[in-house]
Amino acid sequence: MAGGSGTRFWPLSRRARPKQFLAIGTPRTLIEETLGRLSPLIPAERALIVAGEGHVPAIRELLPDQWLVTEPCARNTAPCVGLAAVHLLKRDPDAVMAVLPADHHIADAPGFRRLIAAAEERARAGEIVTLGIRPDRPETGYGYIHYNREDTLATTRGVEVCAVRRFVEKPPRAVAERYLAEGGYLWNSGMFFFTARRLLADIRRFLPAMAAGLERIAAAIGTPDEAAVTAEEFNKMESVSIDYGVMEHADRVRVIPADIGWNDVGHWAALADFGTADTDGNVRSGGRPEDLVLIDAHDNIVQAGDARMIALLGVDNVVVVDTPDVLLVCGRDRVQDVRKVVSRLEELKRGELL
Amino acid sequence: MAGGSGTRFWPLSRRARPKQFLAIGTPRTLIEETLGRLSPLIPAERALIVAGEGHVPAIRELLPDQWLVTEPCARNTAPCVGLAAVHLLKRDPDAVMAVLPADHHIADAPGFRRLIAAAEERARAGEIVTLGIRPDRPETGYGYIHYNREDTLATTRGVEVCAVRRFVEKPPRAVAERYLAEGGYLWNSGMFFFTARRLLADIRRFLPAMAAGLERIAAAIGTPDEAAVTAEEFNKMESVSIDYGVMEHADRVRVIPADIGWNDVGHWAALADFGTADTDGNVRSGGRPEDLVLIDAHDNIVQAGDARMIALLGVDNVVVVDTPDVLLVCGRDRVQDVRKVVSRLEELKRGELL
Question: Would you call B334 an interface residue with chain A, using a CB distance cutoff of 8 Å?
Fold first, then answer.
């Protein structure tokens, strides 16, 4: 899933190039990292990218030959995953899907592939499997998965697979703190595993109108009407997440607790979580090491451009993002509010910078 | 005097373009502002610029027809003023000199001209006159002039002219606080008034070797040997300030207490002293107003470039200087240390940025 259009990495991310198409604290772009860490378990020729029309140029620049299906409009994740499922079914009636966001960071790729291999086995057996990240802080920005280790159903390839009790929405702070203390909760990573057949059966059960649309699209794939039918049906679909529309109601939903160095790269401060800091806590992404001079500077995050010296003198906890047409200087504790700058520029009709 | 090569406005100022050739919180460059505020009292055709060879291109770009004498090398202010004096004497044996740094800011130009007119009268009568700025803080970065209002010698054109008791070097903090409390001290502004003849007589008295060199230069002016003789003699001269070499020893030295909104534009934080702040205390210089977006940002100083949006979000007391090849982000209380960045870049052999 490469459809995200987040503004939280503005000004490096723009409408036509959201963060999955950027290298943020990584050598390659996040979408290339996502594909790369699946290899050799899932070869690139079996990876299907689903993205919006507006992102096709960015994808084609990076991955000219990648299998790609475009969403005619943004309709949240349930229609996106359903569209992928009908395309996969055409190729392989027994297809097992790994649904993965294109813009996350995972430090332990071998560990991640071990979990995927276990999840694939369970999915092939008809279950829905999700990866649940063990929380290390009372994060209020994620949904949680309530599970019980005593419910562990099986250990597949040395990996625990547990029953899900329920999915819970983003909690208030006090609730998140209780979740962390109690220990029976995992972060919902948005990564799911199931057969395409099982997913479409559940969409038929819980979202019947959407299922009808997907069936019309399935029938049109490979015909001259494919684009027109996809556009017509996709437009009519309910905008709903796969979590809310399917997972919360489905049977036999499992969770694999995961300790894989996962980071959803949610905002500029996330660079400090997986980037390499100097001894003063400063993290650089982009640019050349020799083009950053730091004097009495601590715990700063710098997204450098390609062709400028950046000097920080006597500043702490600041985020600096240097792009050719915009410079952002932001308090590290205010990175969640970068969208406020984007909103201000929209009001000021400065769309060329968004 | 346009010979300054200060690094404190780096990265806007560079070796070939120190701050007198920049617009820093001003519509025109500081040297143009300096010449402009003398008009109509001193017309531009009677203004002589003394600067280093390296600054000639910057001066000719701004002021193609201005009377200009170049210093073959940097030798502090006494040789500089002496060189100007011998050139002025050639034009007018009764020349009265106003010695003015090219890179200061003076908010009250009419008030300044009133003081100059009074100083000129006293200088023509054979006195040495300096402007002393009434201090409003215990500044340790300036020399002071000890005077006594009871010594007021005359009121010329409504302006008080006082006897100087002594010049004092940059004081430690406790001493500066005492000066401020006692009230008998003024900041030495580096602005002096005297006849060229009187100045050269005092150089003969206190710096006889320098006087001999200046006499050789005077004899060569207008001859084919002028440049060679100037270079040879200037090189041999002692590097000494006019304050230390002449003023502290001279007779009949006067000071005019000045309240003219003077600022020596000594570092980036000075912009806040004479720039126009928004209601949150932010000051912008350079760039276009519409290319600066401030959200929850207070007491920042921004030197903007010509062609980029700058957005500040949730940051206070930061100085941002945006130039095409260098970006500086500096704590407002650390502007005195900008030279440390310059030194670091020298060590790193990044002379192209200096």
Answer: yes
